[in-house]
Amino acid sequence: MTTLKQRGINFLIALDQLFGVVISLGAQYPDETPSSYAYRLDKNGRFFGKLLRPAIDKVFNILFNQTNHCYMAYMEERDRYQLPPMLRDGAPDVASRKI
Predict the structure, then answer these.
(1) Are 17 and 33 in contact, with CB atoms under 8 Å apart?
(2) What are the angstrom distances between the C-alpha of 69 and each of 12, 46, 73, 93, 99?
(3) Which of 27, 30, 41, 84 has the most CB atoms lying inside 10 A of its own CB?
């Protein structure tokens, strides 16, 4: 069962992802956060990544005492952290379950 706090976090993540797709004019993947996108842009040497990643990291450092926020967001996306546990890599194959 999902707690009320987790539901609120899920809602904020969804708004964050929508915001990223809108401001990037669709260049950001729909299920990717702007923080992960900023890291990916910076990693690929893109101007906006070099501009946005340090700014986002600074804001999260000041507000939440979190270092390397964009990198951590990128790693969570890469590791499919936002997916339900049953959909992550290494989960049992649903088709093989007996119903």
Answers:
(1) yes
(2) 16, 18, 6, 32, 41
(3) 41
Average pLDDT for the chain: 87
**AA letter at 32:** E
Spatial CB neighbours of 93, under 8 Å, sequence gap ≥ 6: none
* Helix (H), strand (E), coil (C) string for the chain: CCCHHHHHHHHHHHHHHHHHHHHCCCCCCCCCCHHHHHHHHHHCCCHHHHHHHHHHHHHHHHHHCCCCHHHHHHHHHHCCCCCCHHHCCCCCCHHHCCC
Global pTM?
Answer: 0.78
Separation between Cα atoms, residue 76 and residue 73, nearest integer Å: 5
- In tens, the pLDDT along 38-63 reads 999 999 999 999 999 999 999 999 99
